[in-house]
User: Fold these one by one.
Assistant:
Number 1:
Amino acid sequence: MKVTLITGASSGIGEAFARRLAGEKHDLVLVARNEKKLHELCDELMLEHKIMAHYVPLDLTRLDADAVLFAETEKHRFEVDWLINNAGFGSYGDFAKLDRDHEIGMIDLNIRTLVALTHRYLPGMRARKAGKVINVSSAAGFQPIPFMSTYAATKAFVNSFSEAIAEENRPFGIQVLALCPGSTKTNFHAAARMDRVIQVKGQETAEQVVETAMRAIKAGRTRVVSGTVNWLVATAVNFVPNALITRAMARGLRGKYQEDQ
Ligand SMILES: NC(=O)c1ccc[n+]([C@@H]2O[C@H](COP(=O)([O-])OP(=O)(O)OC[C@H]3O[C@@H](n4cnc5c(N)ncnc54)[C@H](OP(=O)(O)O)[C@@H]3O)[C@@H](O)[C@H]2O)c1
């Protein structure tokens, strides 16, 4: 059975993808740690849309997470036709003072598991000469960001990696998209303990981000920034040296960060 596998489907952008694609009759495999939330969401989507929805409660920072998930989809003979690498988290603060395990866990989730899952599922897509990989990156990946240093760097990796493998896999009928949201109304900021520090105005909804992704998929794009203002900023930073950007950002954020101590 062909399925769409979505990581981080228990809330935010991942949940919005699950709801949208269930409405378009995709059968789903949903992954996150919150088993209760996944169970309830699968029950709801199966009832409402008459689709199959399977859930896998799993901590994707685990070093064997890709192997565990691949074994599960193989066991059920699921053919992963769309892979949506969405699970991710951020952190905010002075890098030297941040929790080391938390920073490394972020790299494990935002980069290592994303790469490993993509590598696991590409061969099947190539054999079938079809497939979509949506890697949820961020507008934060377009420039280094002081006080969000690890997070912004993980998303720079996701942008670079996704655009490169998009070209490698184009001849096999596979589309790879780096989806770059700006600030979006989800649990992300609370999870990163950022909500007390940065008051974000003009956030998009998770549904708007998913709409952007679906339009980009239809248009055959390999990278898309969600939201006009986010796109303008992401484009403008190409014309400014990183040293200027990081100094200006650090000036603004250092004050806020120090107030937060
Ligand atoms: N919101 C924004 O402003 C924004 C902007 C740009 C990019 N993004 C990106 O969008 C993606 C989705 O984030 P979101 O905004 O929708 O935030 P969210 O509401 O916090 O959702 C994050 C999802 O990832 C899952 N997750 C977190 N850690 C996990 C782990 N160790 N193992 C398995 N699943 C895990 C969470 O589920 P459990 O807690 O149940 O595990 C949840 O389903 C992330 O990659 C984020 O970097 C977000």
Number 2:
Amino acid sequence: MCSTHCDVFIAGAGPAGLAAAIALRQRGADVLLADARRPPIDKPCGEGLMPNARHALIQLGVQLDSHDGAEFTGILFASDQSRVAADFPNGPGIGVRRTTLHTHLLNRAQDLGVRFSWNTPLVIKPVPKEPPTLAGEPITCKWLIGADGAASRIRAWAGLDSADLRSRRFGFRAHYRIAPWSTYVEVHWGPLGQAYITPIGPEEVCISAMSRHAGLRLTDILNSIPFLRDKLAAAPTTSTERGSLTVTRRLRRVTRGNVALIGDASGSVDAITGEGLALAFRQALLLADSLDRGPRRHSAAQDPHTSHNQPGSLALYESRHAAILALPQRMASLLLLLDRHPRLRARTLRVFAARPALFREFLAVHVGEQTLPRFVLHHGAELGTLLLAPR
Ligand SMILES: Cc1cc2nc3c(=O)[nH]c(=O)nc-3n(C[C@H](O)[C@H](O)[C@H](O)COP(=O)(O)OP(=O)(O)OC[C@H]3O[C@@H](n4cnc5c(N)ncnc54)[C@H](O)[C@@H]3O)c2cc1C
């Protein structure tokens, strides 16, 4: 058992917690990371790392290549009537099994000297001034980072639960043994939701599906999409199906006193965007930058709720965090609009299929290589006219 005294204590060793530990350790902080589970930690995920996630990983010293999974060159949208694909403007993404990603992040963190405490849930009593404990010991640290996922208890304890919940859906994933038939992540739009297929190896794909409808399973969604039903009919599964909620949530604040939230704990986007991991990695780099630049003064872990005690360095994280989340949340809103309105969806996919260059530009916005206002300025009128035109 590690001593619970450290510069930075991170609760949760998922991708966000590990990335934060790496980024902070790269800047010389003494980091203790605790998780309720043992590595490698699995979780329902589409397992696609967008190009911007890969770029952020490289800054964290983690380089993934085709030995670790399977690269994909872009995104394909398909419905029963339309298909359109485009390459990313900023290099390929990569599909990597979640446990493989976890192992890479963990190896990097271990090499840097991060301290770990596995299989030890952080115990948080619903008493504001009482510090969380780990294996019975109170945490004493300069900074406490909540990387404990979408249902974060650190968030509630620190009084940061005030949020705008924009969407809430059900997500699933399973793996199938079948050679990827496409170099794209294919997003198939069906009547019950979307299913996307991420190549993760020469003979394996990860299938993830999202739906607004409760009580469904992955196979219900796949069977409602004839292309996937037929394609996967003879393919054996290589993992058991797992599911979880996927939400688009924006918090009013992500820091208080010496507490900062990161990853899904700090707000999230619907899984359809494929941006959750990229967000976590970018936030980790920002957090380390903020703490490194700001004054490293000791603020008592015992008193995290006094907002006047806000260290300047976390103020920087607080102010820039929203900017990182803004575009993915806007894209989530647009994609969920298509989910809710089948006729708008059918028209939009038809327009993109007829004008692939427009889809390419839309994808460039999605990965942050083009701004949304610029896209609207240059293509808004054309897109509007095509969407409104009689068939
Ligand atoms: C169906 C689905 C598909 C998705 N597909 C993609 C995709 O293709 N690409 C993408 O980029 N993103 C995708 N996402 C989003 C991505 O999975 C998340 O954004 C990402 O997992 C967030 O990482 P995290 O570290 O913040 O949280 P988590 O991965 O949830 O990790 C939180 C960690 O905290 C630990 N923990 C919790 N409470 C405690 C406690 N009290 N004490 C100690 N430890 C604790 C947990 O054990 C866990 O290890 C998908 C999500 C879903 C649901």
